[in-house]
Design brief:
Radius of gyration of chain A: 20 Å
Radius of gyration of chain B: 23 Å
Order of helices and strands of chain A: HHHHHHHHHHHHEEH
Shape of chain B: globular
Number of strands of chain A: 2
Structural class of chain A: mainly alpha
Number of helices of chain B: 14
Oligomer: heterodimer
Strand content of chain A: under 5%
Number of strands of chain B: 8
Shape of chain A: globular
CATH topology of chain A: Formate dehydrogenase/DMSO reductase fold
Helix content of chain B: over 70%
Chain lengths: 345, 442
């Protein structure tokens, strides 16, 4: 039962990264692909009707994580106190930027919120990457399953690490590049004309950065977290996930070259999913590793809620997710096709 | 300030600020649905135009509700991790259900509701308004269910490591506290929305702009407002009072400012709790009335604070007393003003009664104060318990987050929310000033 919920939460996080990933990515490349006020309006309108629903995946995944693994939620949210609060502030800035930009017609109002949108999106990508890095590296859990991390210490992932060290910064920069690629592919898919051409060019250039950074990060991860090595050695069939990720990344390059925008975006989504599943597979059954005594790690068994709650949860979760799937199909179908420069909301 | 105080202020401030927005949007979702229904039934484009105007105000409030709501979902873990860990097996259910059932529904159809009127046609557009209404009211239900469990925990046992283990899903969702508390909360939300709608209508009538819309808003706001205010008072307020008398008698004593236990307890209308001498200063009382309201007997004994050990008193008795009296006092004033306005409306004189229109316009901020005061009564009244009778507040805090770190983020939220408030008022005032577009321009 814990394992089912472990993978359900993982699936929700994957959905979050794929869906909100493209609108975060659109923010990261906002100023690169759109030069004029009208073009920036177009980029925003490619995510306008869906970004809020995408962000709900984060909330729903957080809520589900809390419900299924209360000890993990409690420990990680308080341990990562400062960066999480900054994530909240950035989410506020970003949400306000998207929603309030088009309320006032003024040459100073639009650039202000465009900048807020771009800066908040880029910083959020870096923060999320660093968070993932922290989970992979492990944290100094004590006997009661608690910890508190400062923002930085000596920038090395040793026994007393900070939120930021060279490894988590590398993870942050990698996620920034990966989501920039994902977002550029989305913008290319949803727009026409100059923005589309620029987005495709940005995607092509960022792709090389992604290739280099992802390889660096993979090597570094195996170095920093020996558990990964052990997992893949114990269950070698798991190698299929990193291979799918690499194959998907190569397909992205081919599709950018061939100008098959839908395929490129889907391949990028598959790449994100396979990367995350690889990490999750490598950590399982750990949900938050200890960087000291391995016995102090939080696992699916010592962090989960009691069986009755998890059983009853499945009863409402499955229909709930089916409904959600239906909403998303509806929302994206009614928003199909490219967004034009002339079209005003 | 010690860490506990800062963590408490952190949650109190962010949740109080947050609830300024959902309390309007939940009630407004109902009023918009009523306008859309009237548009569908009468075929009169005037109602569709009125709904469109309020949808714009709704959108700004909804965005504020979303960005200030996300921090609430996080703060159980960040600032109250020991509580989150202990109670997660129970309230994790309702919080996760809110994400899965309400947030996806609202966020998926709000876009269609706000931008899809032309494309969808009147019936499908009405349906999106219904779904947005359902999503927001379900969200309210699940949050009130969470709070009701903290007020009156049911359907759980304490496990081997001190964690709460859910034993009955239905006791959680059919908690005897939940019914009245939910109706009371939602009616409060409808009062806020109704008064805001009526106040904006009165503003239009008094300034001589958008006359036709002004009349619609005043009519709708006054009628919905009086109905909701009556529901607030009876049966929901009365029902909740009985729940408190039954399960949290010490909270009732603090709310009513009853220090000494005696038969035939008077109801204090005014007065200041004097915590040094354990008495009510300058009391203005109705003899025996509290006994009657609580137990339907003029001679019944209502337990005063002296019947309970001081360590079980709410840790801020005067705050509980004042917030409760502010809530009830304002509710009584709303009832009087709205009844007067409804009478005048029935006589066909309201749209010309400048005095009453002024009163309606000036009422705008007060439902926000009343709703906030009500929540302060409930939450400070629950003290010194985090989960009533089970976990005391200091036991739930994130011990590893130091006071300095908590103060840092509290100051951050104070600053950010100040800027948000200015932006919000600026944008909403622009929308009100611009006003609804004439019905012809569909």
């Amino acid at each position: 039962m814990e394992t089912i919920w472990f993978w359900l939460v993982a699936c929700m996080l994957v959905a979050y990264v794929i869906f909100d990933g493209f609108d975060l990515g659109a923010g990261i490349v906002h100023f690169l692909v759109a030069r004029t006020d009208d073009e920036r309006r177009v980029v925003l309108s490619t995510i306008g009707p869906v970004w809020d629903g995408n962000e709900v995946w984060l909330l729903a995944a957080g809520g589900t994580l809390y419900f299924a693994f209360p000890a993990l939620y409690a420990s990680s949210f308080s341990g990562f106190y400062l960066p999480l609060m900054m994530v909240l502030w950035l989410l506020i800035l970003r949400g306000v930027s998207v929603e309030f930009r088009n309320h006032v017609e003024s040459p100073v109002w639009h650039p202000l919120w465009d900048a807020g949108f771009a800066v908040a999106s880029a910083l959020l990508a870096i923060f999320f990457g660093a968070a993932l890095g922290n989970v992979v590296r492990g944290v100094p859990l004590d006997r009661s399953g608690e910890f508190f991390l400062p923002l930085w210490t000596d920038w090395t992932p040793g026994q007393s690490p900070g939120i930021l060290d060279w490894y988590t910064v590398l993870a942050g920069v990698t996620v920034l590049a990966v989501l920039a690629l994902h977002g550029a592919l989305w913008v290319a898919l949803k727009t026409a004309g100059e923005i589309e051409v620029r987005a495709r060019r940005v995607a092509g250039a960022v792709w090389w950065g992604v290739l280099v950074l992802v390889n660096l990060l993979t090597v570094a991860s195996f170095h920093v977290q020996p558990r990964l090595q052990a997992s893949f050695a114990a269950r070698p069939w798991g190698w299929v996930f990193p291979f799918v990720a690499i194959a998907a990344l190569l397909v992205v390059a081919v599709m950018i070259y061939r100008v098959w925008e839908r395929a490129a975006f889907l391949a990028s989504s598959l790449f994100l999913a396979a990367m995350l599943v690889s990490v999750t597979f490598g950590l399982y059954p750990c949900v938050l590793p200890s960087n000291g005594d391995p016995a102090l790690s939080l696992t699916i068994s010592n962090a989960s809620a009691a069986p009755y709650g998890l059983h009853i949860g499945l009863v409402w979760f499955i229909p709930g997710m089916l409904l959600t799937g239906a909403y998303f199909v509806y929302a994206y179908r009614s928003f199909a096709g490219k967004v034009g420069v002339e079209e005003r909301p | 300030m010690d860490a506990l105080t800062i963590h408490r202020l952190h949650f109190a401030f962010t949740v109080t600020f947050h609830y300024l927005f959902p309390q309007l949007t939940m009630g407004l979702a109902l009023l918009i649905l009523i306008l859309k229904t009237m548009a569908l039934r009468t075929g009169n484009p005037h109602y569709a135009s009125a709904a469109r105007f309020w949808a714009k105000i709704f959108a700004i409030n909804f965005a504020m509700g979303v960005v200030t709501g996300i921090p609430m979902e996080f703060q159980f873990g960040t600032n109250w991790s020991r509580f989150a860990k202990s109670a997660g097996g129970v309230i994790g259910q309702t919080l996760a259900m809110e994400g899965v059932f309400s947030f996806f529904l609202e966020s998926s159809f709000l876009g269609a509701f706000l931008f899809g009127e032309k494309r969808l046609g009147p019936k499908a557009h009405w349906f999106t308004a219904l779904l947005v209404f359902l999503g927001s009211w379900m969200s309210g239900f699940l949050i009130v269910a969470t709070d009701a469990w903290m007020q009156h925990p049911t359907g759980y046992v304490v496990g081997a490591h001190g964690e709460m283990v859910l034993t009955s899903f239905w006791s959680l969702l059919l908690n005897p506290w939940l019914g009245w508390q939910y109706i009371h909360t939602m009616a409060g939300s409808v009062v806020t929305a109704s008064v805001v709608v009526a106040a904006v209508g009165a503003f239009y009538l008094l300034t001589g702009s958008h006359q036709e819309h002004g009349r619609t808003f005043v009519r709708l706001g006054v009628i919905e407002g009086i109905l909701a205010t009556v529901v607030m008072l009876f049966p929901s307020g009365d029902g909740q009072g009985h729940n408190i008398a039954w399960d949290q008698p010490v909270t009732l004593a603090a709310m009513e400012g009853v220090f000494t236990t005696e038969p035939g307890t008077p109801l204090a209308i005014l007065g200041q709790p004097d915590m040094e001498h354990h008495r009510l200063d300058n009391p203005l009382v109705v003899p025996r009335a509290l006994s009657f309201l609580t137990y339907q007997s003029w001679k019944a004994e209502v337990k005063g604070l002296d019947s309970f050990p001081p360590q079980n008193w709410p840790d801020n008795v005067p705050l509980v007393y004042y917030s409760y009296h502010i809530m009830v006092g304002l509710g009584t004033i709303f009832l009087a003003v709205l009844a007067l306005a409804a009478f005048s409306l029935w006589r066909g004189a309201l749209y010309r009664s400048r005095g009453l229109l002024w009163l309606l316009m000036m009422m705008l901020p007060f439902p926000y104060i009343a709703n906030t005061a009500g929540w302060i009564t409930a939450e400070v009244g629950r003290q010194p318990w985090l989960i009533y009778g089970v976990m005391r507040t200091p036991a739930g805090v994130s011990a590893q987050v130091s006071s300095g770190n908590a103060l840092f983020t509290l100051i951050g939220f104070l600053g950010i929310y100040t800027i948000l408030s200015i932006l919000f008022l600026f944008l909403v005032y622009r929308e009100i000033e611009e006003g609804p577009e004439p019905a012809a321009a569909v």
